[in-house]
Design a protein that fits this description.
Length: 259
């Protein structure tokens, strides 16, 4: 049996309550299509034209886009606008779009908690919803800490900023998915981990003697979609199909000169 969209919205709010969203965020039902019964759900980090085409091809009733495809104000909705065109195509097909974003970060068992799983913690502090600060029972080397993140997230690479002076073991670490510099800015920790960070933010942490680990924005978030798909599938009726987009891609790749 298809699942009513209204019931599905309640299910999503139980998993990631919208009241946990950051004030600046735009979460929830962003596009309401004409289809009121949901049989197929497509999960993606970003709603690109390629992902929208995939949704249309597979007969998707609801796209759950982690990043909100409508964020700042839209002055018009025309197919000349590459941001609006995928939304118009989905709307014409009756497909709805939902974004959980920072609500899913902050939720218990959500993305930020999942990022902590490679580490045992004798203490954990929540930082502004999406951030976490961990006190480790046993200090780790920088290499051990980086390796745990790499294995857990399947990271192709990490970029590291080391503070000047003698390196020390990691007793406290703080993390935030995506671009977490503002969430982590005042934290006291030996190391911070996030997806991306501005140059001067990195220097600020470096001056304070804090290691910085970064990869790419989506590298800290996209792997969680498979976990989220499992959570949704367990919550919804068996005949509602939840899949992760195959067309969702990190926009940046690493180009290295020939050795």
């Amino acid at each position: 049996m298809p699942h009513p969209l209204s019931d599905l919205l309640n299910d999503l709010d139980q998993i990631a309550p919208l009241e946990l969203s950051a004030e600046w965020d735009n979460t929830g039902l962003l596009l309401e299509g004409s289809t009121t019964q949901v049989k197929k759900i497509l999960l993606t980090l970003d709603l690109t034209a390629e992902v929208a085409a995939e949704a249309l091809k597979t007969g998707t009733d609801l796209v759950i886009s982690y990043h909100p495809p409508i964020f700042s104000g839209l002055r018009s909705l025309t197919r000349k606008d590459p941001q609006a065109a995928p939304l118009l195509d989905l709307l014409a097909a009756g497909c709805s779009v939902y974004s959980p974003h920072t609500a899913l970060d902050a939720a218990e068992g959500g993305l930020s908690d999942w990022l902590c799983l490679p580490f045992e913690a004798k203490e954990m502090e929540i930082l502004d919803g999406s951030g976490r600060r961990l006190v480790l029972p046993t200090p780790l080397t920088l290499e051990e800490t980086a390796s745990r993140f790499e294995q857990h997230l399947g990271l192709p690479y990490l970029r590291i900023s080391k503070p000047a002076g003698r390196s020390r073991k990691i007793r406290t670490l703080a993390l935030c998915p995506g671009a977490g510099a503002s969430v982590l800015s005042g934290v006291e920790a030996d190391l911070v981990f996030t997806g991306e960070m501005k140059h001067h933010d990195i220097l600020s942490f470096q001056r304070r003697g804090i290691h910085v680990l970064i990869s790419e924005h989506g590298h800290t978030e996209r792997p969680y979609l498979k976990v989220f798909a499992t959570i949704l599938s367990q919550q919804l009726p068996n005949d509602v199909r939840v899949t992760v987009s195959r067309r969702d891609r990190e926009p940046l790749t690493l180009l290295l000169p020939d050795a």
